[in-house]
Description:
CATH architecture of the largest domain: Alpha-Beta Complex
CATH topology of the largest domain: Phosphoenolpyruvate Carboxykinase, domain 3
Oligomer: single chain
CATH class of the largest domain: Alpha Beta
Helix content: 40-55%
Number of strands: 15
Structural class: alpha+beta
Strand content: 15-25%
Radius of gyration: 56 Å
Number of domains: 3
Order of helices and strands: HHEEHEEEEHHEHEHEEEHEEEE
Amino acid sequence: MPDLRSGKRGAETSPCRAALRRRLNEHGPETARLLSRAERASRRAESAEAAAPPLPDVCEQLAAEVAARKSAEQKARAEAVARRSAEQSAASTHESLSAERFQNHCRTLQLQRSIDDLRQRLSTESSMRLNAERQLSAVEGFEFEDGYWGSGNWKPFLDQNAVQSLRMLQVSNKTHRYTIGTNIYDAAMQFNGEIIQRNVHYGTQRRVRKTGTQPRAAHPPQPWQQPVLALGTARWLTLASSWNTEQAVRELFERRCQHTLQVESVTAVHHGASLNAFSAGNLGGNADPPIAHSYSQCQTDALLFHGTNEANVANIMAGGLKLKFAKAGMLGAGIYGAPDPRKANQYVPAGQHGRFMFLCRFNTTGGRNQQNVLFTEYCVYDESKVVVLWMLKVR
C-alpha cells in the first residue's frame, strides 16, 4: 500500500485524494486509538463469550415440554379409565348387595312366619297341656289357699314335682321340700291332718289340701279369726289408698329413685295386728312427706321406704316393724324411713337371695326428720305409727 503521507506519485493523485490524504494524516493517531479500543473490546467480548455458559437449545426445550405434556395426558386418560372401571365395579357390587339384601329380607320374612307358626303351635300345645294338668290336678292332685289365711281361694298345683312330693308326704308323714319356679317350699303334715306349706326364704305359710272328684268345702275360719281377717283386709286397702296395686308401687318407686334402681318383685304384706294398731293420719295424694312439700300442711302421713338385712325380712313380714329391735341412729332409737329408695338402699346389704326393703305408711306426727345434701330420712318413736304394706326385692 503506498504511503499516503509521502510525496511519491503526487502527480498521479487527484485533488480529492490529496484532501483525503491530508485528513488521514491529521487524524492518524486518533484513528489508531479507535482501532486499538475496538480490538480490545472485541477481545473482551470473545473472552466473555468463552466464559459464559452455552445457551440452551430452544428446540430441545420445546421437545421436552411436548413429551411431558403427552405423558400427563396419557396419565389422565389412564386415571379416567381406572375411575370408570371402579364406578362400574361399585355399581355391580351395589346391585349384587341389593339382590342379596332382598334375598335376606325374604329369608327373614319366611323365618318370622315360621317362628310365628311355631309360637302358635307351642301356645296351643301349652294351653292343652295346662288344661290337662288342671284337670289332672283337680282329680288327683293338690291345691293351695291363695291370699290371706282363710280366704277360701283355692288354686290347684300345676307343678308335678310339687304334687309328687305332697303325695309322698301323705305316705311318709315327714317334711318334704320342693321348688316351684325360684321359690323353695317345705310342706309338713299337722297333727289335725292339714298340710302347711312354708316359704323357706320369706317364712310365709299357706294351707294345702288334696283335691278329689268332689272338692271338699274349705274349713270355716275360727270365730276369733273371722273379724280380724275381714277387718285386716279392708284396713289394708284403706291404708294403702291409691297404692294398692303392684303397678302403682313400681311407679312410686321409680319416681322416687329417678329410675336408678330396679324392682325385681313386689309382695303385699297383710299383718292384721299391725294394721289394726296403726294410728293413721291424713295421707296426701302423692304420698310424699309433708315436711318436704309446703302445699300439703294438713298431711301427716307418708309412704316411706325402710331398708333392712335379709335376715330380718321374715320377722318383719310376720310381725311388722317393732321398736324393741330398733337401733340408735342419727335421730335416736326409733323406726326409720326415707322417701327416696336410694337412701333406704344404703341400709340394705347384699344377701344370699338378694336385697329387700319395705314400703311402709308412716304417721310423722311427733317424729323427727333430718335432711342432708342428697336425701331426707324420718324417724318415729312409736311402732303404732308405722305399718308395713309392701315388700320389695330390688337390684
